[in-house]
Specification:
single chain, alpha/beta, Rossmann fold, 2 domains, 6-stranded parallel sheet, 5-stranded parallel sheet, globular
């Protein structure tokens, strides 16, 4: 008889689909999944604090440069390279992207087509919390040739592009910088460039070489400074054989990434097949309980401050409009 499990998703990004996502689809291979407000298993991410109000088995998924907090979760899936037994699985976000199905170790190269493309592209839409390194590099490389920017930031192509793949496929290089440099934090940016048969110009994860072949992309961290990295890109741009040699390199060195769904299946079923009391690691006693209570209090105060700010703004608006 197929087991029925009660699950819930909270604190995920705004367009996260509770009924159709990589977690529930993998779980459905073995269980009947019931979405419930009284779950046995809670899946949560970093976009809120509703998870603090649940006491069931809690599994955290992180798609940002945030280190998992095992005081608030029993299990986690994230970017970091950690060894915590059955409590943790490394699952970088590029693996769950729709276009991962198009990712290959090697691609057939049409030499004439790839050489007769424009110089370099970049697609960035948010720099609010980003390291200034990306902007610095974009401006420095632009002194050699125009770098076409198709995002909302630094846009110079007439407006934001609607199809990133179609856009960057028109270029020999793509600036694929992360928003920060953090151990293990490799997002989809380098993969997107490789799928488009561009050479990625990468900066970010110091451990990116543990999955992606360092001979298949330009890692700005490997150069003495930005100027030296730009000089090498210029050399590749002018030397067709050197460019094609890098473009032909295998894209990955860790082929296990292509089995990620099987690994997630093993990770999750190991949790759910335990008795509930054995599956829980976080405790309701000692300083760990106080730690979570303090987080809940901070969240409560923060929400009250937001409400007061909104109320104050509304009162000001009423006064300005003469609503009495």
């Amino acid at each position: 008889m197929v087991r029925r499990i009660k699950i819930k998703f909270v604190d995920f990004w705004s367009d996260f689909n509770f009924e159709d996502n990589f977690i529930i689809n993998i779980l459905r291979e073995k269980y009947i999944c019931e979405l419930s407000d009284n779950p046995d298993y809670l899946f949560f991410s970093t976009f809120g604090n509703r998870h603090l109000h649940y006491k069931c088995v809690k599994i955290m998924y992180i798609g940002e440069n945030v280190f998992p907090d095992f005081n608030i979760c029993d299990y986690a899936m994230a970017f970091d390279w950690l060894d915590l037994g059955d409590r943790y699985m490394r699952l970088p976000i590029y693996l769950i992207r729709d276009n991962f199905k198009d990712f290959r170790i090697n691609y057939d190269i049409d030499c004439e087509a790839v050489l007769n493309r424009k110089f370099c592209s970049i697609v960035v839409s948010n720099i609010k919390h980003a390291n200034p390194m990306r902007e610095l590099f974009f401006k420095k490389l632009s002194t050699y040739k125009k770098v076409d920017s198709g995002g909302r930031v630094w846009n110079n192509v007439g407006g934001p592009v609607t199809d990133k793949h179609q856009f960057i496929s028109q270029y020999k290089f793509n600036i694929a910088f992360e928003n920060s440099s953090s151990l293990g934090y490799t997002t989809e940016k380098i993969m997107d460039a490789m799928i488009a048969q561009c050479i990625p110009v990468y900066w970010g994860d110091p451990l990116v070489h543990k999955n992606f072949n360092p001979e298949a992309f330009i890692n700005v961290d490997n150069y003495r400074d930005v100027d030296e990295a730009v000089d090498y890109i210029v050399e590749l741009d002018k030397n067709n054989e050197l460019y094609l040699d890098m473009l032909r390199k295998p894209k990955v060195i860790n082929k296990k990434m292509f089995d990620w769904e099987k690994e997630v299946y093993v990770f999750l079923t190991n949790i759910i097949d335990k008795p509930i009391d054995k599956a829980k690691y976080i405790t309701d006693y000692g300083m760990q309980k106080l730690y979570r209570r303090n987080l809940m209090y901070a969240d409560f105060v923060g929400n009250r401050l937001k409400i007061n700010k909104i109320y104050s703004a509304f009162q000001t608006l009423k006064q300005n409009l003469g609503w009495f």
